[in-house]
Amino acid sequence: MLWIPGGSFRMGSDAHYPEEPPARVVEVSGFWMSPTTVTNMDFARFVEQTGYVTVAERPLDPRDFPGAPQENLAPGSMVFTGTPGPVDLRHLSQWWTWTPGACWRSPQGPKSDVAHLGNHPVVHVAHEDAAAYAAWAGQGLPTEAQWERAARGGLDGATYVWGDEPEAPGERLAHHWHGDFPWRADAGYGTTAPVDSYPANGYGLFHMAGNVWEWTDDWYVEARFSDSSPCCAPRDPRGGSAEESLDPRQPQFRVPRKVIKGGSFLCADSYCMRYRPAARRPQMIDTGMSHIGFRCVGTDA
Fold first, then answer.
1. What is the mean pLDDT of residues 176-195?
2. Quick check: pTM over 0.85?
3. pLDDT higher than threshold 50 for residue 85
4. Which helix (H) or strand (E) holds 47?
5. How far apart, in whole angstroms, are the C-alpha atoms of residue 144 and residue 12?
6. Which of 256, 165, 260, 249 is nearest to 211 (CA)?
7. d(CA 134, CA 137)
8. What is the pLDDT of residue 200?
9. Residue 193 — very low, low, confident or very high, per pLDDT cuts 50/70/90?
């Protein structure tokens, strides 16, 4: 693990997506963080030693999903599937497919495997799976503030993990979507990459932008800060709870959401320019996908 120095930094952004403001100074104590996301090889070792079964591999209880078609009750996960051509980007269901049998060991479905993806990030892990691995390793998941502090690599307030200017043509600074999303990716893009295949940031951390979204341990709330909220990270500077994290636009889904950070190989400038330190999204804790992974931090113990 690498030491991330403590200090104050500007968290969030007032210039991008509505879930990111306001930009605010937050204080974080120093902590240890893994230089890479957890790999398929790492996760396989964990499963081999513990017999752990991920959420995506467990049978579903029909009582938890009233009215769901029987075929949707088989264990599985959400898999990105490129479209045959340009589509309306307002409807993400066109490129996400519920795939029975998809899980960390079969990321594209039953006929796929990770035999040649040992150094790629493990995906299709729910928050519970990530937390279980971290506990087994004697570590934990980062708070949102810790994650953003680390991602900035000492560049306080910068737009990207490498500075304020976007990639120049031909530069490879972040593994995000290059090409026409979601149907045509440039060569070398459109799927995960090895966890250490792009330049590290100022703290020596790899892929703090792109490749896979990363779980944090903070509940997602729409408004991150108020004038009266404390800013005493590394614990959650906002407060928040599982109940507050529920999606008010989808009251039928009583599944709490955690914050994910960093963007993924699916972040296209034309659709989702979220491969930035300030970017954040909510993710239901019971749902892994083919573009979500995690990394660990050291504990105080």
1. 96
2. yes
3. yes
4. helix 40-50
5. 10
6. 260
7. 5
8. 97
9. very high
Residue of 148, 144, 198, 145 lying closest to 176 (CA atoms): 198
Which amino acid would we find at residue 54?
T
Location of structure tokens 């560049």: 155
Which tokens is 24 given? 């605010």
Q: Considering the domain 1-57+72-301, what is its CATH architecture?
A: Alpha-Beta Complex (3.90)
Q: Domain boundaries in the chain?
A: 1-57+72-301
Per-residue pLDDT of 197-234, as tens digits, reads: 999 999 999 999 999 999 999 999 976 544 434 333 33
- CA separation for the pair 290, 105 (Å, rounded): 11
pLDDT of residue 223: 60
CA distance 11 to 13: 7
Longest dimension (CA), the chain: 52
Q: Which residue type, as a one-letter code, is found at position 249?
A: R
Q: Look at the chain and count its residues.
A: 301
User: What distance in Å separates the CA atoms of residue 234 and residue 218, rounded to the nearest whole number?
Assistant: 11
What is the C-alpha separation between 26 and 29, in angstroms, rounded?
Answer: 10
Integer Cα distance of 112 and 235 in angstroms = 39
